[in-house]
Amino acid sequence: MSRTWFITGTSSGMGRELTERLLERGDRVAATLRRPDRLSELVTRYPGQLWVRELDVANNAQIVEVVDEAFAAMGRIDVVVSNAGYGVFGAAEELTDDDVTGIIDTNLTGSIRLARAVTPHLRRQGSGLIMQMSSMGGHLSFPGFALYNSSKWGVEGFFEAFADEVQPFGIRTILIEPGVVRTPFFDAAGRADALPAYENHPGISRGDLSSDEMRDDQTKVVLAMIEAGDMADPPRRMLLGTDAYELVTDALRRRLAEAEAQREHAAVADAD
């Protein structure tokens, strides 16, 4: 039985491949991106299956308009994939105000706005899945990538509460948390101009990753996302990649150990 998907950020990378593979198996896709002409070939190849609209997820009014139009045109949408996002490498002090605004508006606020916009439609349907692209970087942080990590930690916190709010309506949520995937993401990411104080900093990532550091395969991540979209009761979070599993579980163990070490001291703030 074919399903209907709504996907943001479909111009390249995982969003593009996800769109292509869903169309190949016979599903319908409402694909959104900032430059719709990039999907012209797919529109010609899959008439009646592919619905395309321009969407910048940093534009709240446009999100509401496009979501309403998509549900009206498709009749029903089974899976909403919030995939649009980007990164900027550089120490926090090196980032511009525009860098901060752009990342937060797209990766965090845009994701929240999309979830809010689709919820009334999914609630009326009585079911649906919201699949939010997160990252192992939603559990741990890398110097030189603090802004991207901030956006993903924020997404994780929002969905932790949001999932319980919408579950009674038959709406499920899942956070997709890949490791370092071989995608165009790193080539497309911005690079802040290095300040002299940070030029020789040994811990600052500038996004110059080797192929060995990109341990995860884009196609396998996409196939796992499609499998998750077909699940009747998907998990709240899905780690993808051995690197993601190892780094996230290690980070969680360290934070738990730090919290447990403060057990006795925490009591100093208890009311009498």
UniProtKB/TrEMBL annotation:
Gene3D superfamilies in alphabetical order: NAD(P)-binding Rossmann-like Domain (3.40.50.720)
UniProt cross-references to InterPro entries, sorted A to Z: NAD(P)-bd_dom_sf, Sc_DH/Rdtase_CS, SDR_fam, SDR_oxidoreductase
Keyword tags: Coiled coil, Oxidoreductase
Annotated GO MF terms: oxidoreductase activity
Domain of life from the UniProt record: Bacteria
Parts forming coiled coils: 242-269
Family: Belongs to the short-chain dehydrogenases/reductases (SDR) family.
NCBIfam families listed in its UniProt record: PRK06482.1
Stored PANTHER family: SHORT CHAIN DEHYDROGENASE, SHORT-CHAIN DEHYDROGENASE_REDUCTASE FAMILY PROTEIN
Name of the protein in its database record: Short-chain dehydrogenase
Organism of this sequence: Kibdelosporangium aridum
